[in-house]
Predict the structure.
Amino acid sequence: MGLFKTVCMTLPVLLASTGSEAKEDEHPGVRRPESRLMQNQQGEHLQLSSPLRSVLHHPAFAGFARMLLPWDDRAYDDSMPLHQMERLLPYHSHVHPAEAIAALNRLIDEVNHGKPVFYDFYSEAQKQAQPAKRNTGLFYFRGKPGAPFALIAPGGGFVYVGSLHEGFPYAMALNQAGYNAFVLKYRVGRGRYCSHRGSGGRPHLHHPECEAIGSQP
């Protein structure tokens, strides 16, 4: 049974302009691609036959690869081909691996063009105090500059976050309509308490790109 937990809400997210020359250490919440990735274009596209390890160890996803996947505390069979993706999503049905892979490849392309796709909203001190906060963040799918944006909170029965099925493909569809989209990776593992509070209520990213996006929710 599919769980559609998509939520569009006001989110005071301030993002980094793709043309910004700000340095990473000035904005620690933004995980920028390393220059060698942009120079060498090491981001090969994923295929239906690609093993899961190709996601977990893809250079474009360095530092946040596990956040793309549903479970926070499970070991994965990294030899599993991506066309069997439904094995990762036991509470979902009608999973379409090709759509999820297209969305992942979109993120790879963005990284290869030097554009950030993942944002932290907790500080390192907050993560040390509550380690579960390391399992949070925002994935950004760019639409038209100045267009409204949506925040997508994928479902998963309060035990995992089904971004591959209820997050990234929806973001792609919104992009095709011109909208910007964010997919929220929130904490799970303690029922509704963590799911509702996994983002700390109203996550903030302080960055000068808000003027560049000029977006309204």
